[in-house]
Amino acid sequence: MLNTHSGSTLGSSQLKLRSLEAVWHPCTQMKQHEVIPLVPIVRGKGVWLYDSDGRNYLDAISSWWVNLFGHTNPSINAAICDQLEKIEHVMLAGFTHEPVVALSERLKEIAPGSLGHCFYASDGASAIEIALKMSFHYWQLCGQSTKNNFVSLQNDYHGETLGALSVTDVAIFRETYAPLLRQCTHVPTPDWRYAEKGESSENYAIRAAALLENYLEKHHAEIAAFILEPLVQGATGMGMYHPVYLKRAREICNRYRVHLIADEIAVGFGRTGTMFACNQADISPDFLCLSKGLSGGYLPLSVVMTTDEVFQAFYDDKTARAFLHSHSHTGNALACRAALATLDIFEHDQVLDGNKIKAAYLNNIALPLSMHSKVKNFRNCGMIWAFEAETDDPDFAAKCFQAGLQQKLLLRPLGKTVYFMPPYVINEQEMDLLIDGTLRVMDAL
After folding, report:
1. 37 confidence band (pLDDT: 50, 70, 90)
2. What mean pLDDT comes out for the span 108-114?
3. Of 111, 196, 274, 278, which residue has the fewest beta carbons closer than 10 angstroms?
4. Crossing angle for the helix pair 333-349 and 351-365, nearest 10 degrees?
5. Cβ-based burial of 315 (10 A; exposed 0-12, middle 13-18, buried ≥19)
């Protein structure tokens, strides 16, 4: 049995062994850990993670893109501790509490357009499920039962539950479960890496938007919503595109009466340089899905924000017309307090302005990396950087991860795409270490 006394610590080897025996790790072929050891993390501070052997690693990917203001952030810690003395959780059906009300009001103030209604869940995929169901249900309530299909972008990723996976276009996740999934059309991506030689990112985005319009012109009567990852398509290699696509997509969806769902789970809260990626096109979606950085990376929390028009379609005397969807931990008080503390940091510390300075610094010191002989398509959007490695090695991702650890870096490539998405508290010395260490990794591989 594990020693569960307060303050007890397992040794490194013991922790790794017991984890292999008891924990089924996500996105992992467990057999590989027979030769590639797990990294047992015991604490974190700022951008740094520390393992049980005393080694430290710069968390260059914010622990799967969630951490905004560093590990064990004092302000977020204090907010959670304060909330612990009040109420940790209460069901949100028939009850409410101050943190969820305050968070909803704060989100309403900063969200694009008139997204005034918040429906909470615990993770990003659950938020996608809510948005898809809510859009479908809206059209049913409006007497348009044929509008029951969805369109997404080529290469989009929206999660791995069945509804979210149906609108995801990543083969390694989809293929096994294809018999369980709804059919979904994936229109061409505006990712500028697909542009013709000499074609600008803006012109390619406009051309891709025209293909979306061609499809919706023919099929809008059967389409409930178009869902996309604004500006950066994450899981298929940080594909980046011009904001004009968002502007055109909003116009097209309006023209053909199709909902626009913005999946800002990964890119919201400053990742693309603005609070929300949609801000860069000055548009507002019908549904905005948020998670990851929403709680500063501390606790599982997601939210779907939508318009009064959608909300009013469900507002009725009949229970059957309600949106009958629930999660046990919906609007968890601790997670909401963490989210409020996160928004306080944005408000008080001029984070977005500071991030522009940090992004400019990193872009400058990354010039040698961008010109490296094994690097192509070096790109940046806000506090996200990515490039492709010129390699035929099918094990590149695993080798890069291991080589990164030797340089005190947590890197987790997406295939041949290496990316950085560090916490916003990263300083210049840590950025120097990130670039120098990555250069050594590329030289070694």
Report:
1. confident
2. 97
3. 196
4. 70
5. exposed
106, two tokens = 């704060």
Closest CA to 184 of 199, 167, 171, 170: 167
Query: Could you tell me the two tokens for 209?
Result: 């938007």
- Cβ–Cβ under 8 Å, residues 26 and 160: no
- 70: three-class secondary structure by DSSP: coil
pLDDT digits (tens, 9 = 90+) for 198-214: 999 999 999 999 999 99
Arch. (CATH architecture) of 77-348: 3-Layer(aba) Sandwich (3.40)
Residue range 288-327, pLDDT digits in tens: 999 999 999 999 999 999 999 999 999 999 999 999 999 9
Arithmetic mean of pLDDT over the chain: 95
Question: Which pLDDT belongs to residue 367?
Answer: 98
385: which residues sit within 8 A by CB, 6+ positions away?
Answer: 362, 363, 366, 378, 379, 419, 420, 421
Rounded Cα gap, residues 313 and 390, in angstroms: 52
- Tell me, what's the pLDDT at 104? 98
For 14, other C-beta atoms within 10 Å of its C-beta total: 14
Taking residues 168-177, what's their average pLDDT? 94
Contact 217, 256 (CB under 8 A): yes
Two structure tokens written together for 223: 């389409």
Do 140 and 156 form a contact (C-beta atoms < 8 A)? no
Name the helix (H) or strand (E) containing 402. Answer: helix 396-406
From first CA to last CA, the distance across the chain in angstroms is: 42
Concatenating the DSSP letter of every residue in 95-157 gives ---HHHHHHHHHHHHHSSTTEEEEEEESSHHHHHHHHHHHHHHHHHHTT-TT--EEEEETT--
